[in-house]
């Protein structure tokens, strides 16, 4: 839709999920745990909060994005994103498979380049934000899928429906902040959702049922102690 006039605004929607796992890129459980954290879904930077046995992280919207793309008439694509979301990720270094991710997105924060389309997406025909203000995701499993890659599975609640979702996460960049000693990892999480699964079927004649999502997440981990 970008750059092309049309008689009627087009639509879009979204969603995705987590996984669980084994060893990480560096072949250690600690490395895997780091990877699992990065794989965190629903976009956002993740900053550490006070932790004990298990480490708790929260999403930081300054470093994350949740975007989506949908095809219109098979000829061009509509793009949009969400501007408000929050989430938590809990990791137990002693048991990486216990990683848990919980994310909440404000449906009313959906945004596209076209004001009319944005209003349409917020209406009862699509997200119906007046009745379903939140989009929620709860992870169930995080599994390694190769060097720097993870599969995340979980349950997503959208438009009053809860459905299983699986997303793919890939580590794009990792580095050590020389000033703070913290490990910083950037992940891209991708997946495909079906509008029909969430009973968002308006305008099926020209808007595709398949919606592609792309999430950028940044994980910031405390510097290791004693070395």
Written account of the structure:
- This protein has 227 residues and is mostly beta strands.
- A hairpin with a 3-residue loop joins strand 3 and strand 4.
- The protein has a single domain, classed as Beta Barrel (Lipocalin).
- 8% of the residues lie in helices and 48% in strands.
- A nine-stranded mixed β-barrel has the order 1-2-5-6-8-9-10-11-12.
- The chain is elongated, with a radius of gyration of 18 Å.
- The N terminus is likely disordered.
Short recap of the structure:
With 227 residues, the protein is mainly β. The protein has two helices and twelve strands; from the N terminus they run H-E-E-E-E-E-E-E-H-E-E-E-E-E.
Topology:
Blueprint: H1 29-38, E1 44-48, E2 55-60, E3 65-72, E4 76-82, E5 85-91, E6 100-106, E7 110-111, H2 115-122, E8 134-146, E9 149-158, E10 161-176, E11 183-194, E12 207-221
Parallel strand pairs: 1-12
Antiparallel strand pairs: 1-2, 2-5, 3-4, 3-12, 4-7, 5-6, 6-8, 8-9, 9-10, 10-11, 11-12
At the third CATH level, what is the topology name?
Lipocalin
* Structural shape: elongated
* Strand segment count: 12
Fourth-tier CATH superfamily name:
Lipid/polyisoprenoid-binding, YceI-like
Q: Report the sheet with the most strands, covering strand number, pairing sense and barrel closure.
A: 9 strands, mixed, barrel
Strand order of the largest sheet: 1-2-5-6-8-9-10-11-12
């Amino acid at each position: 839709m970008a750059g092309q006039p049309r008689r009627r605004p087009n639509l879009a929607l979204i969603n995705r999920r987590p996984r669980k796992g084994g060893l990480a890129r560096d072949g250690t459980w600690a490395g895997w745990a780091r990877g699992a954290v990065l794989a965190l879904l629903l976009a956002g930077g993740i900053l550490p909060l006070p932790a004990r046995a298990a480490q708790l992280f929260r999403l930081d919207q300054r470093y994350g994005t949740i975007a989506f793309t949908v095809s219109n008439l098979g000829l061009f694509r509509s793009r949009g994103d969400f501007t408000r979301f929050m989430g938590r990720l809990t990791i137990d270094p002693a048991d990486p498979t216990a990683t848990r991710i919980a994310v909440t997105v404000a449906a009313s924060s959906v945004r596209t380049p076209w004001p009319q389309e944005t209003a349409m997406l917020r209406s009862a025909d699509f997200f119906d934000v007046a009745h379903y203000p939140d989009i929620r995701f709860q992870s169930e499993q995080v599994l390694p899928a190769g060097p720097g890659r993870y599969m995340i599975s979980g349950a997503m609640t959208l438009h009053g429906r809860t459905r299983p979702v699986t997303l793919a996460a890939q580590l794009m960049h990792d580095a050590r902040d020389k000033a703070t000693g913290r490990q910083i990892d950037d992940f891209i999480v991708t997946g495909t959702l079906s509008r029909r699964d969430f009973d968002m079927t308006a305008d099926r004649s020209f808007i595709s049922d398949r919606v592609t999502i792309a999430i950028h997440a940044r994980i910031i981990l405390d510097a290791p102690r004693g070395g």
